[in-house]
Every structure is written in C-alpha cells, then in structure tokens.
Specification:
Blueprint lengths: L11 E4 L5 H11 L3 E7 L6 H4 L11 H6 L3 E6 L4 H12 L3 E4 L5 H4 L4 H7 L4 E6 L14 H7 L21 H24 L3 E6 H6 L3 H10 L16 E5 L4 E5 L3 H11 L12 H6 L1 H12 L4 H11 L3 E3 L3 H6 L1 H5 L3 E6 L3 E6 L23 H7 L4 H10 L7
Parallel strand pairs: 1-2, 1-4, 2-3, 4-5, 5-6
Antiparallel strand pairs: 7-8, 8-9, 10-11
Helix pairs in contact: 1-8
Length: 404
C-alpha cells in the first residue's frame, strides 16, 4: 500500500519489534515512506513502551511511545493462539519486510521465523536485531544497550580520564545505532531483491552497533597494541578538540590543524604561537593537560556568547554545549525540520524529532502521530481479505483488539 511520500513509498513492513532498537529501525523506514504495520501483543499487554508507567507522559499518553512510533499503523495480535498466528501469516503474505528483535527462537516457536515465512513469501526481507547476532557463541544471550556499550569497548574510553569509574554515554547509543544499521541493511536488501528477485535475512546486533562506534580507537589499538583510555571531551589524535570553560559555561572547540590553530591562538592568546609546547599538534598532544588548563584560564575571561561570536568571525569551528531543551530551540535544528509538531488525538499538539536524512525528490518525515492501540485493526484486516464478521469473531475471542 502506498503512503504517498518518501523513497520507500509502496513498501509494506510488518513490525514485531518492541523496546528501542527495533522500533528505531521501523521508524526510519516509516519516515522514508514505508507502510509499517506494528504488531503489538494482545489482548491486554500491548507494546511495553505504550504500557509503561511513564512519568513523562503527555495527557496520559507515553512520550517515549509517541516519539518512536509515529507514522506506524497498529495491529494487536495474540500470536500464541493459532488464530493469531494465522492472521499474522496472512498479513505477511503481502509484506516486503518483516522486523523482529526477540531472542533467538521466539518467533520460530510461533511458526513465524524466517525459514517458515519464506516458504509462503520467498521474496521477504527478514530484518532481525538481537543483543549479539544470529551466529557465534553469544547468539542465545540476552542483550541490552548497557551490556553492549560495556562489551564493545565504548565505556572503556568514555569518562573523565584513566582510573575513573566507568561511564556510559547519556544516550542509548547501541540501541539507536543498531536500528539505523538495520534500516540501512534492509534498503540494500530491497535493492538486491529489485535486481534478482531474491529475499534474504538481514541480521545485526547491539554488540556490533557498539563496535562500529570505535573506528578511531580500534585503529589506534591495531597500530599500537595498546587499549586507548578515556580522555574526557578530548580527542585521541588532535588538540585542542574538546570542551573548554568560559566565564559562564562551556564551549566546544575544534582547532587542531595548522591554520585553524593559528586563527584560534591569535584570538585567545597570541603568545601560544611562539610557545614550543603548543607549536605543533604533536606538541599540544604531549602537553594536553597544560594546554587545557591554559585555555580554560584564558577563556574564563569572557562569556560563552562573546567567544562564539569571535570564533565564528575567525572561521574557527566552535559551538555551545546545549541542553536538550536548548537544542530543540536551536534555529538550525528548526530550519532542518529536526523538531516538528504533530497533533495527537489524545495528547494534543506534541513535538517530535524529524527525519535526519533529506531527499530532494522524495521527502519523508513525520506525517501521522503514534496510533492508538488497535486503531488500524479493522482497516488492516479488511485490506488482507477478512470480512466484518471474521474480524468481529477475532475481537470477541481475544485474537485481536480494535479501537472503537
């Protein structure tokens, strides 16, 4: 079914995912125009994000559910019942993509694994996210973002410095990255199917999503045999490339290469240009702590706004450290439609984040707010051939739920 927008217009996705990584993938596909049918548990449990006792709900509607599940249709199904499984298979018969992030074997036990689906839909693209992937010694392990961040090495290079307590980045990095990686893989698999007619499984994991964040640090470890250590906001190869303190806050500065360093030093302290401790990037890296203290002392003489104005005029890359709320109000974020408002039937006007990829010919992004539980049950089941009487029987027996 066509959605009328986006480069994936006409692609139907059946989404069995929950939590964050899988729904992020489905969100990317939906924002790019795919018709996403989100299968939620029935008759009472629904998606865990929808049912969570969310202290940040808006008029009783979970904010986390809304931000991850816009542009999707909802179909509650009791997959543990034979009738629910049969309905799912009928919906899957006309699908291009299926997504799941259960532990290995869960959908197989429900007769909805890849090997079963491809028997009746051989062109299906089956996208799977798990903690550690579908092969290897950890394939059966449960995985969460925190575990993947630790095991992938991310937490070993995050924090204020060597010997300090482990620190997790403040965002669910491997969850979101895994979702984006799977969306990328599915687009590639759709291209392969377009050429060959072949479907396939696309498989990624939170663990691998963490590993790909370590390109810089892995290169250093491959070259030296040593494990990089945390550097606070600094960079393992360049200086200054970090957060620095001003009179009233903090800014980030990237002034490592020769010309940029010269322009930066001329503004902050021209004497640094003749100081052998700071004359080259290598020297600055060797004297990083001294450089950091010196720059903090100098920059503390002016406000964040004053320094950013001066550095902008000189062409030195720099920026404020925004709070999330400040980022939402940033004129560049607004100009790029990264913060938009939708009207939800229960929550009212709500803000959401936009699509981070822009298409000149096939624009996508938020179109429909997150759906009510069972809102699309009747239309989806009608579309795959069920009658009103059959749908009523499914609702009465608890196979599905419809929002009246």
């Amino acid at each position: 079914m066509k959605t009328g927008y986006g480069p994936l217009n006409g692609i139907r996705v059946v989404d069995f995912t929950h939590a964050m990584a899988g729904p992020t993938c489905a969100l990317m596909l939906a924002d790019m125009g795919a018709e996403v049918i989100k299968v939620e548990r029935a008759p009472f449990e629904a998606d865990e994000a929808r049912n969570a006792s969310d202290p940040y709900s808006i008029n009783g509607v979970s904010a986390t559910y809304m931000i991850l599940n816009r542009n999707k249709k909802t179909l509650p199904l009791n997959l543990k019942s034979s009738e629910g499984s049969a309905v799912a298979k009928k919906v899957l018969l006309g699908a291009d993509v299926v997504l799941e992030n259960f532990r290995h074997g869960v959908l197989e036990r429900l007769d909805l694994g890849y090997d079963n689906i491809r028997k009746f839909n051989p062109q299906i693209i089956y996208g799977a996210i798990s903690g550690f992937g579908r092969t290897g010694p950890y394939m059966a392990r449960a995985g969460f973002d925190l575990i993947a961040q630790g095991m992938s090495g991310i937490m070993s290079v995050t924090g204020e410095g060597p010997g300090r307590n482990p620190v997790k980045p403040g965002v669910p990095m491997t969850d979101i990255t895994a979702g984006i990686l799977l969306a990328m893989g599915i687009c590639a698999a759709l291209r392969h199917r377009e050429v060959t007619g072949e479907g396939q499984m696309v498989d990624t994991s939170l663990f691998e999503a963490g590993i790909v964040q370590t390109y810089w640090h892995s290169a250093i470890a491959f070259a030296t045999g040593l494990a990089p250590e945390p550097l606070g906001s600094g960079h393992p190869l360049n200086a200054p490339y970090q957060a620095l303190q001003t009179e009233d806050g903090w800014i980030t500065v990237g002034a490592a290469n020769g010309p940029t360093w010269t322009r930066f030093a001329e503004i902050v302290d021209p004497d640094m240009l003749a100081d052998p401790r700071f004359s080259t990037n290598e020297a600055r890296m060797e004297n990083l702590k001294v450089l950091e203290q010196h720059l903090n002392n100098k920059l503390s003489a002016r406000t964040t706004e004053a320094w950013l104005d001066l550095l902008e005029q000189a062409g030195v890359p720099a920026g404020p450290i925004n709070t999330i709320v400040q980022m939402h109000d940033d004129p560049q974020a607004l100009a790029r439609d990264m913060v938009v408002t939708q009207s939800h039937p229960d929550a009212g006007p709500v803000k959401t984040l936009g699509l981070p990829v822009k298409f000149s010919r096939t624009p996508g992004g938020p179109k429909q707010p997150a759906s009510r539980y069972g809102e699309h049950t009747r239309s989806i089941l009608h579309d795959v051939g069920y009658t009103d009487e059959e749908i009523a029987t499914f609702i009465q027996s608890g196979v599905t739920v419809a929002d009246e």
